[in-house]
Amino acid sequence: MTSASLxxxxxxxxxxxxxxxxxxxxxxxxxxxxxxxxGSGGEGGGTTTAGxxxxxxxxxxxxxxxxxxxxxxxxxxxGxxxxxxxVGGVAPECDRxxxxxxxxxxGGLDCDDxxxxxxxxYCPGFVGDDCDDADERVYGGAxxxxxxxxxxxxxxxxxxxxxxxxxxxxxxxxxxxGTSNNVFLTPLNCxxxxxxxxCIYDAANMTCTPQVTDNNRLLRCR
Length: 222
Prior knowledge:
The chain is mainly β and 222 residues long. Among the domains are: 100-164, no CATH class; 180-219, no CATH class. The protein contains no helices and five strands. The protein has strands at residues 5-7, 13-15, 180-184, 193-202, 207-218. The strands form two sheets. Strands 3-4-5 form a three-stranded antiparallel β-sheet, with no helix packed on it. Strand 1 and strand 2 form a beta hairpin. It is elongated and about 95 Å long.
């Protein structure tokens, strides 16, 4: 017999050709297994492209229309008639005493317009001695001393044509002819102030020495 045969359990004769070869280890084989690590996973898909910028919003609404031209205002009412002006008064410089009669200087007949009791020199039919009928402090024979000039200027208050000084002034710094009492010790004009007192003369030495009794006395005139 060329091929081995076996007697089966049912009495059939089985040959080796009737058996299928079954894979797997055989008794006595040593099994060696090597585990291979799995490969890296493939790279993901391509980079996602960012979305594009949104479009710009539309412009706002259009400009408002121009306002309409205002209507023309009505005509203003006519003003009332002005009242009649009062009768003009007499200028004060022409009637200083307020008696209603103008001074001679203003074409009137008042020879004493300042009311000082003294008539102006050019008063018709009278001899007057008032050289300034606009200033009641000024008249012939006035005796009051003043440190303020007249309204028209100057210090001739008594109408004598001069500016009379209450006390004389002397220069006591130079040689003098004698002792002077109640004098201003420095040159002054009317209305000014300065040292007042005595200027004492020393006959032996022929010198003058000032003696001040008031450092700031006013020089009055008329």
